[in-house]
Amino acid sequence: MDKRVCVLLAPGYEEVEALTPVDYLRRAGLVVDVVSTTEDIAVESSHKVIVQADTFLDDIQAKDYALVVIPGGLPGAPNLAANPKVIDLLQAVYAQGDYVAALCAGPIVLEKAGLLKGRACTCFPGVEDKLESKGTFKTDTVVRDDRVITSRGAGAAGYFSLALIEALVGPEKAAEVKKAVVMDIVEDNLRG
Fold first, then answer.
1. pTM
2. CB–CB of 8/35 below 8 Å?
3. How far is residue 74's CA from residue 151's CA, in Å, rounded to a whole number?
4. How far apart are CA 4 and CA 30, in angstroms?
5. Pairing of the two strands 148-151 and 142-145
6. Distance, CA of 178 to CA of 68 (rounded, Å)
7. Catalytic: which of 6, 104, 121, 123?
8. DSSP-based three-state secondary structure for 109
9. Is the Cβ–Cβ distance between 116 and 133 less than 8 Å?
10. CA 12 to CA 110: how far, in whole Å?
11. Nearest to 70 by CA among 39, 29, 28, 113
C-alpha cells in the first residue's frame, strides 16, 4: 500500500494511545513511521515506557503522509502543541487533502493548528474546556468530521485505530483487523 502514516511522539505521550494505532495500522498493511519530535530517537512516555522511534520530525515531509496521529498524555500533548514544526506538519497534511487524528488530550494540538474550528470533535473529559474553537463537542467514542478524527482516551484506542483504518483503506479492512484482535468476540461477550 502506498498510504503512509506518521505517529508523533513527544516526551510524556500516553503509550497505549501511541502504540495501539501503530499496531492496528500495521496489521492493516499500512506503513507507519513512529516519529520523535525531540533530538533523541528514544522517547519516554508519561508512564516511563521508552519507545525507540523510527525517525525524526526534522527528517520527514508532509507530502509523504496520508495521516498524522497525535496521541494524548501529559505532558506529551502540550509538548506537541508547543512545537511549531508539529503544527506546520498538521496544517500541511490537512491542506494537501489528507487526514489528521488525535485522542485524549491530543485534540489540543489540532486546536493549536486551527483544525478544529467549526468541526465536531471529542476528547478526554475536561479537555473540551481548552478547545476554544471547537465546533460541536460530542461524547462519542470516536468522532470523524471530514478529514479530522478525534477520540476520548486510552480506553478508546482500539476503536480510534479501527476508525483510522476505515478512513484510509475502508470498512472491510477495519473489520478484518477487529476480528484479528478478537475485539468482535470481546464485544459479543460484553453484550452477554
1. 0.95
2. yes
3. 16
4. 6
5. antiparallel
6. 21
7. 104
8. helix
9. yes
10. 17
11. 113
* Angstrom distance (rounded) from CA 176 to CA 172: 6
The C-alpha atoms of residue 51 and residue 146 are separated, in whole angstroms, by: 31
Residues recorded for the chain: 192
- Cell, residue 168: 484510509
Question: pLDDT tens digits, residue range 146-185?
Answer: 999 999 999 999 999 999 999 999 999 999 999 999 988 8
Backbone angles phi, psi at 13, to 5 degrees: -65, 160
- How many CB atoms are closer than 10 A to CB 50? 10
Q: CA 44, CA 141: separation in Å to the nearest integer?
A: 27
For residue 117, give the C-alpha cell. 474550528
Give Cβ neighbours of residue 99 (< 8 Å, ≥ 6 apart). Answer: 66, 67, 68, 93, 147, 148, 149, 164, 167, 168
- Distance, in Å, from the CA atom of 59 to the CA atom of 185, rounded to the nearest integer, reads 41
Cell numbers standing for residue 11: 516526551
Residue type, 34: V
C-alpha cell recorded at residue 152? 476520548
6 is an active site residue: no
Ranking 26-30, 85-89, 134-138, 157-161 by mean pLDDT, the lowest is 134-138
In this structure, the strands spanning 31-36 and 99-103 are unpaired
